[in-house]
Amino acid sequence: MKSRYKTTLKETASACGLAVLALMLVPVASACGPDSPDVPYAMQPLKLNPQNAWEGAAAENVARDLRAAAAARPASIVGMWKTLFISMGNTNHSPSIADGTQLDFGYSQWHSDGTELYNSGSRPPATQSFCMGVWVQTGTSTYQVNHFAITYDTTGVYSGLRNFIETITLSPGGTMYSGTMVINIYDTKGNQTDHLTAQVSAQRVTVDTTP
Relative to the CA of 100, which of 5, 6, 61, 196 has its CA 20 to 30 Å away? Predict the structure, then answer.
């Protein structure tokens, strides 16, 4: 009887563990953008759910996040992140941009005072590769970022502003986030000249992170 009771407990614990993992895999969660939407971008896999930081993540990244979540430390958005922006919903753009097209990549830093800094990897520094923004926590694991980039042409002449609004969700262990982004582009007179949408994903940078 005791043996059968122990077996039942093991089966229950196993089932509970799988249920917890399944709950953790439901949707959970900066950018100066491309120079122009007609350059040859690389294609990247789209997340089926852009608010799910787990989807498509490498197994070692998921394992690391599970360990961080198990440590019972509160997850924080503050820190440095390696970010990726993937086009979504721009097939009617002129020119058309296929879903899954990489728009930008780079590194962002989220500060505890509610400010944020992003270094774009797709824009030449001469045209301005940095954005500055502010963020606010909107839920238990959700955040919104609003940041701006001042842009110039290759001769150094001011060409306008780009405004990026991101809505993201932090993973349970705080090692990944993902979500959606809206990019609005303005000319020197403040007139909106373009609009793009994208998916956002990021991995936390630590002292052990390699390129």
Answer: 61
Q: Which residue has the tokens 């390696």?
A: 82
Tell me the three state secondary structure of residue 114: coil
- Say if residues 103 and 41 touch (Cβ distance below 8 Å): yes
Q: At CA 101, angle to CA 96 and CA 102, rounded to 5?
A: 130
Task: Give dist(CA 90, CA 180) in Å, integer.
Answer: 13
Instruction: Give CA torsion, residues 24, 108, 120, 138, to 10 deg.
Output: 60
For the segment(s) 27-205, the CATH number from 2.70.50.60, 2.40.128.120, 3.20.20.70, 3.40.50.720 is: 2.40.128.120
- What is the Cα gyration radius of the chain? 20
206/174 Cα distance (integer angstroms): 12
Residue type, 203: Q
Please report where in the chains the tokens 């001042």 appear, as a residue. Answer: 150
pLDDT of residue 12: 38
DSSP state of 60: H
Contact between 156 and 126 (Cβ < 8 Å): yes
How far is 108 from 176, CA to CA, in rounded Å? 13
27-73 tens-digit pLDDT: 322 346 554 444 445 677 788 788 777 777 777 777 777 777 777 66
pLDDT (tens digit, 9 = 90+) per residue, 17-30? 333 333 233 332 23
